[in-house]
Amino acid sequence: MNETKTHYRTCNICEAMCGLEIKHRGEEILSIKGDKDDPFSRGHICPKAVALQDFYNDKDRLKTPIRRTAEGWKEISWDDALEEIATRFRGIQQSHGQNSVGVYLGNPNAHNFGNAIMLPRFFKALGTNSRFSSASADQLPHHVASNYMLGAGMLIPVPDIDHTDFMLIIGANPIVSNGSLMTAPGVGKRLKAIQERGGKVVVVDPRRTETAKKANQHLFIQPETDALLMLALAHTLFEEKRVNLGHLEPIIDELEQLKAAVRPYSPDAVSAACGIDADTIRQLARDMADAKSAVCYSRMGASTQSFGGLCQWLNNVLNILTGNFDRRGGAMFPQPAFDLIAGRKGKRSSYGRYQSRVRKLPFFNSEFPVATLAEEILTPGDGQIRAMLTIAGNPVLSAPGGAKLDDAFESLDFMVSVDIYLNETTRHADIILPSTTGLEVPHYDVFFNSFAVRNTAKFSEPMFEKTGNQKHDWEILRDLALHLTGLDDDGVTPEMMLDGGLKHGAYGDQGMSLDTLKANPHGVDLGPLQPCLEERLQTEDGRIHLAPQLYLDDLQRLNDSGLLDSAERSAYPFAMISRRLPRSHNTWTQNSHRLVKGKDPCTVQLNAEDAKELGLEDGQIAQVSSPVGEICLPVEINDDMFSGVVSIPQGWGHNRSDTAMSVASTQPGVSINDVTDTQRVDELTGNAAFNGTRVNVSAA
Ligand SMILES: Nc1nc2c(c(=O)[nH]1)N[C@H]1C(S)=C(S)[C@@H](COP(=O)(O)OP(=O)(O)OC[C@H]3O[C@@H](n4cnc5c(=O)[nH]c(N)nc54)[C@H](O)[C@@H]3O)O[C@H]1N2
Ligand SMILES: Nc1nc2c(c(=O)[nH]1)N[C@H]1C(S)=C(S)[C@@H](COP(=O)(O)OP(=O)(O)OC[C@H]3O[C@@H](n4cnc5c(=O)[nH]c(N)nc54)[C@H](O)[C@@H]3O)O[C@H]1N2
Ligand code: SF4
Ligand SMILES: [Mo]
């Protein structure tokens, strides 16, 4: 009989990095709780962590490589699979060029340090520019803003939530999402603490969200008008002489250009478009400027929209103009133990180095926008993508106009997926390679420590040995690279590279190493964020650029947009926005019976007045249609929606055939990305513009 053991690790599902305490007897998991001794999360967890056992035990998990045949899926050996993949990829590249093999990386890559560390080697071996990822359906505008203003796409400011006196949250719902580009486990408590110390939380969102309900003030806003609001806030700061650059003043450039650029955007000029009255905007600017410390934090709502680039630039501008950049209680810069920007100073960014073949969208961070993927596969001609590799991604459900990828993937000469499931995307593959996940994987957050509201470091050992015939993702990447190049394994592992980075990092002289972390399974506290931008700034001239020309140029597009095309408005009278749910993570957690039990959460929310006008009742099935598609789902009437706006969850729609997710596929729910449009992007950055998609709603 096995004895009961306790294992400590970090949850790898979302960005919050919660510490877990897991009791188990052999392979039987007895309990999953928050680790009270984790110096960062101090016991916080959410319902998803408990489902880690479901993913571990899931009988639908792929256990061995499989190959599509005329008689269905057949198991094959790793050697045969890897050999065939290398031969086919190389053959296609020889006939059609290096870029004819495309790669899509999904969100879990960011939660897996083995991938993060091994991917550059893999890409070097494959040699293709046809790279795509979920970043361009997510945070790309943050990287572009950091690149142009601070010299490094990964040098992203995070709100110092634990010390701020005023937090303006635009288009984020951290109570549900648990924070994003703001790793802050237990964010609800942290927000409450702002209020308890006499501070204020203001939420700007077209939906009265779970976060808005806890805030001191909630302002409804018309989708996609946030750039106008932020321009008007900046305008007011100049107009009322409230600009105060603080300690960074000597290294800030382009203040005059900025001042001229925001001049036309008075609160009166933007009020009608935003749906917020001018005095309220002025007061918001004053509140932010007058607070002892303040921070503006904007996320998905402000990023995945037509002016996401402008929004994330202006978000930084507001923090800089109020003297809150790199200052306690403002927008600060973590100093992670494993530093992604170390040694990158002076490296030129790849922004705009190439343009996508079909639509001429910009290349950034060595990738093209995922909104272009379907057309790059479907449009014949030189440079067309003929083969694909997806790694931990489900773009058929997650990408804008995702349904188009069903046809695109089906048309490929060859497709490979590295995944844990046979799902909506991987069902199109010729070969699927099964990886380990969650509890079977060692863990260190190379990305999220760079976006965390406190400096900490933690390494988790794998809790269980791999089962079956699976490999770690990084081993698959290594083996694919070796088969592609014919080289011998040099024996370098992600742990060795992590150890090297820790020893040479900012805490190396204090003894930081992988051994140190292994000896401290609850994690090591490295203290609160400290002002450090002057050392971490990566611009060649050592200065902060307030008004990079590409943003000034993009203002013209904002002006010309009239924001709302009136023809489109009459045919499609509603603006659609996406919603995240407390008990699911993107597209892949819906196979946990524990997480999907209860009422169907995949509803279209709208307010009572709009519903009445449409003759819709609560619970009735509505059809939501856009120029590219339609979905049918139940109506949920509440007073949380701004008029003319409807909200639908992202990540659902597991009703396609030929998948093998026995729990998920029996769930109701449809894919919002069957109605979003590949053509709707923020033209500046290429980021997907999910929010504000025009739709019509009617009884089904
Ligand atoms: N309309 C709309 N669309 C959106 C969004 C939205 O708000 N609205 N949000 C966007 C955002 S922010 C994101 S990040 C993207 C996410 O887009 P994706 O990353 O494409 O979607 P995921 O659901 O995260 O897909 C994860 C895939 O990885 C697999 N997987 C899980 N764990 C592992 C693992 O450890 N190893 C491997 N190899 N595979 C694994 C899962 O089975 C699944 O196939 O969606 C975007 N799409
Ligand atoms: N439970 C759960 N947690 C998650 C995820 C999940 O799927 N489920 N996904 C994870 C991922 S990959 C990410 S990237 C993060 C995202 O983290 P967040 O950005 O905090 O999450 P969202 O819920 O997408 O928040 C976007 C908010 O913007 C609002 N919004 C939509 N359009 C507009 C607009 O035009 N203007 C404004 N001002 N607001 C708008 C929406 O109503 C919504 O409240 O969450 C992560 N955490
Ligand atoms: S908040 Fe995120 S990291 Fe924390 S337990 Fe939930 S899913 Fe895991
Ligand atoms: Mo995301």
What does this structure look like?
The protein is an alpha/beta fold and 700 residues long. The strands form 7 sheets. It has a 7-stranded mixed β-sheet, with helices on one face. The protein has a 6-stranded mixed β-sheet with strand order 22-24-23-26-21-25. Strand 2 and strand 3 form a beta hairpin. It is globular and about 70 Å long. The mean pLDDT is 96. One ligand MGD binds next to helix 6, helix 13 and strand 21.
- Proportion of beta-strand residues: 15-25%
Return the CATH class of the domain at 160-327 and 532-555. Alpha Beta
Largest sheet descriptor: 7 strands, mixed
Shape call = globular
End-to-end CA span: 58 Å
- Derived structural class: alpha/beta
Count, helices: 25
Which strand order spans the largest sheet, edge to edge or round the barrel?
5-4-17-16-15-6-7
The CATH architecture of the domain at 160-327 and 532-555 comes to 3-Layer(aba) Sandwich
Kindly state the percentage of residues in helix.
25-40%
Unreliable runs, pLDDT <50, ≥5 residues? none
**Measured on Cα atoms, how large is the radius of gyration?**
24 Å
**What average pLDDT do the residues reach?**
96
Count of extended strands: 26
CATH superfamily of the domain at 160-327 and 532-555: Dimethylsulfoxide Reductase, domain 2
Bound molecules: ligand MGD, iron/sulfur cluster, molybdenum atom
CATH topology of the domain at 160-327 and 532-555: Dimethylsulfoxide Reductase, domain 2
